[in-house]
Hints:
The protein is α+β, with helices and mostly antiparallel strands. The chain is about 25% helix and about 25% strand. The protein folds into two domains: about 5-100, no CATH class; about 105-145, no CATH class.
Amino acid sequence: MNNFIEMDYDEWVQTYKPIPNNIVENASFQDESGKGIMFETYGDEYEFVKKADPRHIWTYGDGDDGGSYIWSEWSFVNRIGYFITEIPFPENTTIQIKVSSYWYYCEGCQAEIEDDGQLINDKFYEWECCPLCATPEQLKEIEEANA
């Protein structure tokens, strides 16, 4: 059985120490020195990742909730990139780091709304509005549907 640990990005960087990507100059996720630490999913960067010890490889990708995450282990599904760390993650442990939340862009008022729990009702998509610019009638309809 796997242990499951959640941590924030800064804690992950301090604990596992991702190495810089020295293959390309403009790698994503810059560290405090300005060097990028993410490796791409193709070409020389991918080949470099494949040669690393598996317990030092982390995947950056899309989560099922619309946010993005870093998780321990190499993965192919939903991947955006990879990290390699100096410190290995523990055996029989899955570690997850939330990088970004799900965002909803409202066509009605041009607001960008962080929606961690995907609370934006499907009706808002139909109406191209959000809780900030919905009419009282629209809000009442959603409230009645959720009762």
